[in-house]
Amino acid sequence: MSENPALAQIEEIVKGNDVVLFMKGVKTMPQCGFSAKVAQILQYLGVEFKDVNVLQSNEMRQGIKDYADWPTIPQLYVKGEFVGGADIVTEMTLSGELDQLLEAKGVAYDKARAEEIRAHNKAAS
Amino acid sequence: MTRLDRIRAALEEALAPESLDVQDDSHRHIGHAGSRPGGETHYLARVVSARFAGLSRVQRQRLVNAALAAEFAEGLHAFSMELKAPGEA
């Protein structure tokens, strides 16, 4: 692994926040559809999370890919653990696994909202 | 050989899938971050492979990402995936 100074910074952010989303743009103004999707899910569920804009620097953009050995962005971390990107977070939301994860990790969220997403998705498919 | 062909070949080799459906979705992302004039940046795939049995979602995607490492290194920007083991809904 390189001497990328962003890695130490990423480690500090991941360990220092219960829920962190590394994304393109910020939660109030995402700059990529995949990042927007995950940010929207978390916001809809009322999950408090830190958003980190990887576009702030090349070091951060490359660093986050190296940190998790994961080639794409967004990346969601809960209590220091890598959860996944847009596909995984979406699937886990629809399957109820995200609820289980948040509950197991003691992260507050609005379960009624999660049920609403699932009911809506079922009706749409 | 297009990137789509290379992706299919790489996934066939790495995963010996029962079914493999890969689509170039780049045209739907024109003007978005990561889009390039020549396209070949955004893909989506549905894969059923026995290799996924017993693996978590992250582990499954890691197998795919590893198979596509060369493509990610050369401009592949986004790869959406739905990965199942045989028998999964």
Q: What are the SSEs and their pairings?
A:
The complex is a heterodimer of chains A (125) and B (89).
Chain A: H1 6-16, E1 19-23, E2 25-26, E3 29-30, H2 33-44, E4 50-53, H3 58-68, E5 75-78, E6 81-84, H4 86-95, H5 97-104, H6 111-124
Parallel strand pairs in A: 1-4
Antiparallel strand pairs in A: 1-5, 2-3, 5-6
Chain B: H1 3-15, E1 19-24, E2 42-48, H2 57-67, H3 69-72, E3 78-84
Walk me through what this model shows.
The complex is a heterodimer of chains A (125) and B (89). Chain A has 125 residues and is an alpha+beta fold. Chain A has one domain (6-124): Glutaredoxin. Chain A contains 6 helices and 6 strands, in the order H-E-E-E-H-E-H-E-E-H-H-H. In chain A, a hairpin with a 2-residue loop joins strand 2 (25-26) and strand 3. The longest helix of chain A has 14 residues, at 111-124. The longest helix of chain B is centred in the first third of the chain and has 13 residues, at 3-15. Chain B has helices spanning 3-15, 57-67, 69-72; strands spanning 19-24, 42-48, 78-84. The N and C termini of chain B lie far apart (33 Å). Chain B is 31% helix and 22% strand. Chain B is built from 3 helices and 3 strands, in the order H-E-E-H-H-E. Classes of the chains: A alpha+beta (125), B alpha+beta (89). The A-B interface holds A 24, 31-34, 69-72, 82-88, 91-92 and B 29, 32-34, 57-58, 61-62, 65, 68-69, 72, 77-82.
